[in-house]
Write a structure and sequence with these properties.
Helices cover 28% and strands 30% of the residues. With 703 residues, the chain is an alpha+beta fold. The strands form 7 sheets. An 8-stranded antiparallel beta sheet has the order 8-9-10-11-25-21-20-14. The chain has a 7-stranded antiparallel beta sheet with strand order 7-13-23-22-19-15-16, with no helix packed on it. Helix 9 packs antiparallel against helix 10. The radius of gyration is 28 Å and the shape is globular.
């Protein structure tokens, strides 16, 4: 078979095409974990070792000179291990026990350790036990790694989680893409949880002036200063008397993490507060005993600044974010960090000063300093300088090396000390001031009543919040009741009618018997009746709204959705056309109409699909519809070009792989096999995902 550039893309993971890929390895393997049933009432796994046996689980590894990452795509798409070869230790907590549970709502893997993406459910209980697809990826900046992705059904929200290493860099980079595949807005509250080992000497490094207690964050009632509270420094595990479950409010700086002083190592997170603006710290108080369930503590981040408030994510859109983690070690802690270095500068008690610390004949004996630098990559001949006022009293040229942290202890003159780390060309790598007073603290005043406390905003909040918990019985009943109550007060409001119809459509989408509190045949029958009733009520309210506002495009579009779900495709197509014919067209209708006209008029379908893809450039679904229409119209080369761009950020999407392969086969006049495709192989191993994939293909083709 002739090899083309595009072939190399589709077979990524088999071919190694660049120098960076030679330095970062991606390979499959297994990891052995003690595995047994989840029995919350029968004691912790440590208390019943007879229930757990060593089991080999499929794993994917990413490895460079400094780090080895172990990923578990088949257990909820998590990062299980990030092992630092130089310090010979794990960056995150690794639980040796894996608890399994046949109940997909109960989960069982949520305490496994490492890094987990909580999406679309924002707290323990997301799709942990479901298989995620994975594929190898390369980035233009030299990073190489793995992308894992998963479409959560029936909410139709897709998570894409990229894990990458760069050659010669001891930092693991994470990329996140949270896509709303629905044709209407949906609540988004993506939380990322990292788990960390702890001892009594664990320090929580959260550079945020304010924290909100668990629950208070949601209701906006109370903020507390951090870390000093009632004379107690809560940033140390040994000082805690109660469980600490608090949300950092408006973090000031672009890093946070922890340091385990008993082992002289810690974890550093670098993030962008614009895209991941929040953090949560959770830990239990001492003592830590071998039989406790939680042997770790957790640092979370989230997509919304007030973590317990969901974002209302627009239809057919995505939210992207990125952060990175590394292990700082051998420097006695850290006070500041960026992507390149973590630095430490603290005053020590005299008793802690090293006997051989440089004294300097002319310097007075004062409180000694501990100074340290850890770097995530090799940077030779960097200068570390310390000064008080205008006078530099210490300067040392060091070679920054991830395998060799640098630390020194020295006496210092009184006064505020400034530390600078500079590159040989004079570039400032890091700078920190050890002040004698505290930095000014912003004054944040919480509103007495959140905007969603009552009225329409309260109902909006209920709608967005309804399905964000992975537990049985979470449907849209509350939001339906709220809109109906508002509509009783304003019987002639087309807006409220359309809002209520939208929620009926959402409820019909997620109303499954398996989601009932008591699942079974009776629940299935009840769910089927409710779905039918939801569609009838949605149509009734939309028709009333259209009588009041005949040219309302959104009402016509929702009417088309309801009719199509009833199997009335011709009537649905007419409603979609009406949604597009008004002065302000509802352009998502173009994507749905393109599918329904695909067989009879592929040329018109292509025009419609182009229109939708242009209107919703973030939508993977719109691009898939466009590829399908282009191929139906015989434009396979154009379809392949669309597929290439999709493949760049998510090569783990089986629909992208399938459509791209088909387009290439027709373009090149040859059969491009997908037998080497990682994703195709995974589909054959997962009957449930394959069934959903085949249903998606039929939907794209309007079948």
């Amino acid at each position: 078979m002739k090899t083309t550039v595009l072939t190399a893309i589709v077979l990524a993971g088999v071919c190694v095409a660049c120098h960076a890929a030679e330095e970062v390895k991606v390979y499959e393997g297994v990891v052995k974990i003690l595995t047994g049933p989840a029995k919350r009432d029968a004691g912790t796994p440590q208390m019943r070792p007879e229930d757990f046996k060593p089991v080999e689980h499929p794993a994917v590894y990413i490895e460079n000179e400094y780090l080895r990452c172990c990923l578990l795509p088949q257990i909820g798409g998590r990062v299980y291990e990030v092992y630092n070869k130089a310090s010979k230790s794990q960056v995150f907590y690794v639980n040796p026990y894996l608890e399994t549970d046949a109940n997909s709502f109960a989960g069982g893997a949520w305490n496994l350790g490492g890094v987990e993406v909580n999406f679309p459910y924002f707290h323990h209980g997301n799709t942990y036990n479901e298989r995620w697809q994975w594929a190898r990826i390369e980035r233009a900046n030299g990073a190489v790694g793995v992308v894992m992705s998963h479409t959560s059904r029936p909410t139709m929200q897709r998570a894409v989680f990229g894990v990458l290493l760069r050659p010669g860099v001891a930092r693991v980079e994470f990329e996140y893409r949270f896509e709303n595949m629905n044709p209407y807005p949906w609540g988004l509250a993506a939380w990322i949880d990292t788990m960390h080992p702890k001892t009594m000497e664990t320090q929580f490094i959260m550079p945020s002036p304010w924290m909100a207690g668990h629950g208070h964050n949601k209701f906006r009632t109370h903020l507390e200063p951090w870390p000093m509270r009632d004379g107690v420094d809560l940033s140390w595990q040994k000082n805690l008397r109660d469980t600490l479950s608090e949300f950092a409010f408006m973090p000031r700086r672009r890093f946070h993490g922890c340091y385990e002083h008993a082992t002289d190592r810690g974890a550093v997170r670098i993030f962008d507060p614009e895209t991941l603006p929040a953090a949560k710290l959770w830990t239990q108080p001492p003592p830590l005993t071998p039989d406790q369930y939680y042997q770790h503590f957790e640092i979370w981040t989230a997509t919304s600044a007030v973590m317990e408030d969901p974002i209302r994510q627009a239809e057919l859109s995505c939210h992207t974010a990125a952060d990175s983690w590394y292990q700082a070690w051998g420097i006695g802690g850290y006070v500041s960090a960026n992507e390149d270095v973590a630095i430490n500068l603290v005053r020590l008690d005299d008793a802690l000063a090293s006997k051989d610390a440089p004294t300097g004949a002319a310097q007075p004996r004062n409180t000694p300093l501990l100074v340290g630098v850890y770097g995530t990559k090799k940077m030779p001949n960097c200068a570390v300088s310390l000064r008080v006022g205008h006078d530099t009293f210490y300067r040392r040229v060091i070679n920054i090396d991830p395998a060799a942290p640098w630390k020194d202890e020295l006496p210092a003159p009184l006064g505020e000390v400034t530390m600078e780390v500079t590159a040989p060309d004079g570039r400032m790598i890091a700078r920190y001031e050890l002040r004698e007073d505290e930095l000014p603290i912003e004054q944040w005043i919480m509103p007495k009543e959140p905007r969603w406390q009552g009225g329409i905003n309260n109902v909006y909040h209920d709608e967005d919040y309804s399905t964000l918990w992975r537990s049985r019985g979470h449907f849209f009943d509350g939001a339906i009741g709220g809109y109906r109550a508002l509509l009783k007060k304003d019987l002639e409001s087309p807006k409220l009618m359309i809002d209520l119809a939208r929620v009926y459509l959402k409820d019909e989408q997620v109303r499954l018997g398996s989601w009932y509190r008591e699942s079974g045949p009776e629940a299935d029958a009840n769910a089927a009746r409710r779905r039918e009733n939801d569609l009838e009520l949605a149509i009734e309210h939309l028709q009333k709204a259209l009588k009041l506002e005949p040219r309302h495009g959104r009402a016509q579009f929702y009417l088309g959705l309801a009719l199509e779900r009833q199997g009335k495709k011709a009537e649905a197509a007419a409603a979609y056309r009406a949604a597009l014919d008004y002065g302000v067209p509802t352009l998502r209708a173009a994507m749905y109409l393109a599918r329904l006209t695909l067989k009879d008029n592929p040329a018109d379908a292509t025009v419609l699909a182009h229109r939708a893809a242009d209107a919703y450039p973030q939508s993977t679904t719109a691009k898939h519809v466009l590829m399908t229409a282009l191929m139906a119209a015989g434009k396979h080369a154009e379809a392949a070009d669309v597929g290439k761009k999709l493949y760049e950020y998510d090569p783990a999407d089986p629909l992208t792989t399938e459509l791209l392969t088909e387009a290439m086969r027709k373009t090149d006049g040859e059969a491009l096999s997908v037998e080497y495709s990682t994703v195709a192989r995974q589909l054959e191993q997962d009957a449930e995902t394959k069934k959903a994939f085949e249903a998606d293909l039929r939907w794209l083709r309007g079948e």
